[in-house]
Write a structure and sequence with these properties.
4 helices; 8 strands
């Protein structure tokens, strides 16, 4: 799977939908890449984790994929619940390794599988669950906010655009000047200022009261 799942919206909203008796929505999305079993196309299987069980009526006609730059559009070939992996295998849509992988996922009945025709590029994409390809509203029983999610096909691929270096050095500790809070007369205040100037302006050695720095 992708090393970093794509989460949808805010934790509070997901929790509210999770506690709702009937409302459903997308929890997070993962991309099957390096963990794909032999014979499984890499970067072409989206694992969409729902907050509740996948409705029996939800299928490929409810999946809308948008985004991309060089590779667009990306289309969904088929979509089904992971708990139906045995049927997908019998229909010749997935391999035996994929079947075992999908059925071995936690709560496969709430895992919605989407197989795409190609692997997208490095640009962001968006998966939306819709009523049908002509009606972009969320399917009945789905939260409209948690019915779509942005993701990337190349999350496990090295990119020359990730140019920000890792800063492993601890931040430098700021030094605070030693201040004598008991200084309360002219002499002690003068000495306090001279001590501070010796730190901030070490090249200045004049101590005469007639110096311009005193005026």
């Amino acid at each position: 799977m992708s090393s970093t799942p794509y989460f949808c919206a805010t934790p509070r909203r997901r929790q509210a939908v999770r506690e709702h008796p009937t409302l459903n929505g997308i929890d997070f999305l993962e991309l099957l890449d390096r963990d794909a079993p032999p014979g499984s196309p890499r970067q072409q299987t989206l694992l969409v984790r729902l907050l509740k069980a996948v409705p029996a009526t939800l299928g490929v006609g409810n999946v809308r994929l948008t985004g991309g730059v060089r590779i667009a559009p990306v289309r969904a070939l088929w979509a089904a619940a992971a708990s139906d992996a045995a049927t997908l295998f019998a229909d010749g849509r997935i391999s035996a390794g994929e079947r075992d992988l999908f059925l071995d996922q936690p709560t496969p009945e709430s895992l919605f599988l989407v197989r795409t025709d190609v692997a997208g590029d490095f640009a962001p994409y968006r998966l939306a669950l819709v009523r049908d390809l002509l009606d972009p509203t969320a399917p009945e029983g789905f939260d409209p906010i948690l019915s779509e999610i942005e993701f990337g096909f190349k999350v496990e691929c090295p990119s020359e655009f990730d140019c920000a270096p890792d800063d492993d050095c601890p931040p430098e500790e700021a030094t605070t000047p030693a201040i004598d809070y008991l200084a309360k007369d002219y002499g002690s205040f003068r000495q306090l200022m001279l001590d501070r100037l010796a730190v901030t302006m070490p090249a200045w050695t004049e101590r005469s009261p007639a110096c311009l720095l005193y005026t």
